[in-house]
Amino acid sequence: MTGTGAADGWPTPYCGCASCSTERGAGRHRGQTALLVDGCLLLDCGPETPPAVQRAGADLRGLRHVLLTHQHPDHFSPSFLLYRSWTTEEPLEVVGPPEVVEQCRMWLAPGSHVVFRAVGPGERLTVGAYDVRVLTAHHGTPGSTVLYDVTAPTGRLLYATDTGPLPEATVEAVRGAAFDVVFLEETFGDRTDHGTDHLDLASFPEQLRRLRAVGAVTDATDVVAVHLSHHNPPTGELDRRLAAWGARTVPDGTRLSTGGAAPAPVPGARRTLVVGGARSGKSREAERLLAAEPDVTYVATSYVDHDDPEWRARVDRHRAERPDHWQTLETLDLPGLLGTDGGPLLVDCLTLWLTRVMDEHDAWDDAAWSDGAEAAVGAALDELVVAWRRTSRRVVAVTNEVGQGVVPPSAAVRRFRDLMGRLNARVAAESEDVRWCVAGRVVPLA
Question: What are the chain's domains?
Answer without folding.
Answer: 18-248 (3.60.15.10), 271-445 (3.40.50.300)
